[in-house]
Design goal:
By secondary structure, the chain is an alpha/beta fold. The protein has 17 helices and 21 strands. It holds the Pfam family FGGY_C.
Length: 550
């Protein structure tokens, strides 16, 4: 295997790329860089003329903090993490190809959607970053949902902004700019206060015709809160393919403090992780969808017609091209599953037979296949944070079972995997009621790396076939690199056409159809899961967080 075809991190692309061609592309700036700030990792991904081939990757780990009952990240950690991920990418490029990049053809930044980053006229941060994970905006979300006639979820930026208004927070009087994490990083790199339409759709409702903020709803908010000019506060909206500025000298120094990186690269509109997930799974056309599983889990379904009714379980957002999407977003994904895997890994070490993290996950996932279809009566709730779809203001992870349940490792692990999909399945049942149809559903995220396990259980949970790419990409960072390449070489194609013709034309996927026993077993599990949410609520009400009292 040549250096150009070695796995890059999680990458398993086996397309042969001549090394001289790669070196020439890197030195000539004929490459596209994608950076994504996820909830636990910041990743950088480099692609060339063939956008389906990952040339190099870099990453850095970070974690949110729970400070004064607010989930947050510091801006200092944003930049130390971005710089570390970029440095790791450059080291990977040098190790593989013996060259160091000085420029790129295009750059794109994506990050966790929603949340609240507020700045004053002197570009000073007014309050700590409030991430999507916070669920303290109930009053504002309810008021805006009634005002707009559109579901406004707790995590949306406008909900955070309006809650600050409702609570009469002093910083509101000093507001000059409100953005998302991706919008903030892009602003610092380019000087442009812009946002991709997909990320913007998690700030404020988008008009499907104009593909920018809904003017009628903006006017309604202006009548409600005359002191705030949303048009001035929110970023300008751009659609995929539109240039979003260039990397400035200051931005280049922020990204690469060594000074090797030169300014001038064209930039793509900054996007949210939901949008890059759609791109990474070729799910931007009507009747396609994808599930992304990480710290959170969400499903995106591109609509062919508007929904008939307002549903609190469903967000109406858009693709990076501005097409309407129904989003089922759950604050809690695979973190609790990972915590249990970490405990089992520690057990192996304590027992004198340490195994790698990958082996722990592989073993536990394979064991889950031996579990009963309904997990033997064992229930697992993965709620580390509040979960609006489940009606929970805070999280209390639980494992619950009846005395006659069958507690085996196989049933326990199947319950844990089912638990990742539990709240998602509740939301997807709402789309079933709306008669939303799908031609294909794709899945991506680390939990799908063990072939045929999480993918099979998700197919059973959704009652629909689920596809996973056979050649794993770098997920959202790769999707953002593809969006950057679309700006540089889209050549007038639609985003869907560009993905079909230039990115996924030779891609292969494994598709798993739902097994009847899994469908029936998960349905039984979900009925118990829904009934057991009362126990979750009781735990929230009766068990305080460490260091707090009621």
């Amino acid at each position: 295997m040549s250096a150009a075809t070695e796995p890059a991190g999680d990458e398993k692309n086996t397309v042969d790329v001549p090394l001289d061609d790669v070196r020439s592309a890197i030195l000539g700036g004929r490459t596209s860089l994608g950076i994504e700030l996820g909830s636990t990792r910041i990743k950088a991904c480099l692609i060339g003329d063939d956008a389906s081939v990952v040339l190099a990757v870099g990453s850095d780990e970070w974690e949110n903090s729970f400070v004064d009952r607010v989930w947050t990240y510091s801006l200092a950690d944003v930049w130390s993490g971005v710089q570390a991920a970029y440095a790791d990418l450059v080291a990977d490029i040098e190790r593989r190809y013996g060259v160091r990049p000085e420029t790129f053809g295009a750059i794109g930044v994506s990050a966790m959607m929603h949340g609240y980053l507020a700045f004053g006229a002197a570009d000073e941060q007014l309050v700590p970053f409030r991430t999507w994970r916070n669920t303290t905006t109930g009053v504002a979300a309810d008021e805006l949902t009634e005002l707009f006639g559109v579901n406004i979820p707790l995590r949306w930026s406008i909900a955070h902004l309006h809650q600050a208004v409702v609570d009469a927070e002093p910083h509101v009087a000093d507001l000059d700019f409100v953005t998302t994490l991706a919008g903030y990083v892009h602003w610092q790199l380019t000087g442009r206060k812009v946002l991709g339409v997909g990320d913007a759709s998690g700030m404020f409702p988008i008009d499907a015709q104009t593909r920018t903020y809904d003017a009628e709803l903006m006017a309604k908010y202006a009548a409600l809160v005359p002191a705030l000019d949303l048009e001035a506060l929110l970023p300008e909206v751009l659609v995929a393919g539109q240039p979003a500025g260039e990397l400035t000298e200051q931005g280049a120094a922020l990204l690469d403090p060594t000074g090797a990186l030169k300014p001038g690269a064209v930039t793509a509109p900054p996007e949210g992780d939901a949008g890059t997930g759609m791109v990474a799974t070729q799910s931007v056309a009507p009747r396609t969808g994808n599930v992304s599983a990480g710290t959170s889990i969400f499903a995106m379904v591109v609509l062919e017609r508007p929904l008939a009714n307002l549903h609190h379980e469903i967000d109406l957002v858009t693709t990076p091209a501005g097409d309407p999407v129904a989003m089922v977003h759950c604050n809690n994904g695979a973190s609790e599953l990972a915590a249990w895997a970490g405990m089992f890994g520690r057990f192996s070490t304590a027992a004198g037979s340490p195994v790698s993290s990958d082996t722990v996950f592989e073993t536990l996932f394979r064991e889950a296949l031996e579990g009963e279809a309904d997990a033997g009566g064992v229930l697992a709730y993965n709620h580390l944070a509040g979960e609006p779809i489940a009606g929970l203001a805070e999280g209390r992870p639980l494992v619950v079972r009846t005395p006659d349940s069958r507690l085996t490792l196989a049933n326990f692990m199947r319950a844990q995997l089912y638990g990742v999909f539990g709240t998602l399945a509740l939301g997807m049942r709402v789309l079933d009621g709306e008669k939303v149809e799908l031609d294909r559903m794709f899945a991506h995220g680390g939990m799908f790396r063990t072939a045929g396990v999480a993918q099979r259980f998700l197919a059973g949970a959704l009652g629909a076939p689920v596809s996973v790419a056979e050649t794993a990409s770098e997920g959202g960072a790769w999707g953002m690199a593809v969006l950057a390449s679309y700006v540089a070489s889209g050549e007038g194609r639609t985003l869907d056409g560009y993905l079909r013709d230039r990115v996924f034309d030779e891609a292969s996927f494994t598709t798993v159809a739902p097994e009847a026993a899994d469908v029936a077993g998960f349905a039984t599990y979900l009925d118990r899961y829904r009934d057991g949410l009362a126990a979750e609520q009781a735990a929230v009400e009766s068990i305080s967080l460490l260091g707090t009292t009621r």
